[in-house]
Backbone:
């Protein structure tokens, strides 16, 4: 089961949620309220030492950077493929990070 810790209004969280939707993946939502500093609670800091969102948990693996999460999801769930195979296009895509 995929679990995503995310926050409303977080562009990085929204990018990951878009990938999850495009791949039609089921996931458990863990919304964090950044205005009340839920992202700085000890339980979340144990998952993500920087206290930023998003954080993905999959099969016990914790992934904490949105670009890394997107690459991970595209590798683990290759259909549909969202990251291009051509290096020049991958470089252009990385400009969006």
Residues:
């Amino acid at each position: 089961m995929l679990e995503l810790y995310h926050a409303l209004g977080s562009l990085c969280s929204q990018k990951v949620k878009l990938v999850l939707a495009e791949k039609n993946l089921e996931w458990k939502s863990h919304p964090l309220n950044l205005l009340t500093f839920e992202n700085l609670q000890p339980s979340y800091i144990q998952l993500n030492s920087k206290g930023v969102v998003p954080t993905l948990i999959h099969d016990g693996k914790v992934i904490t950077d949105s670009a890394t999460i997107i690459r991970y999801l595209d590798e683990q769930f290759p259909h549909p493929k969202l990251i291009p195979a051509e290096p020049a296009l991958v470089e252009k895509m990385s400009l969006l990070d």
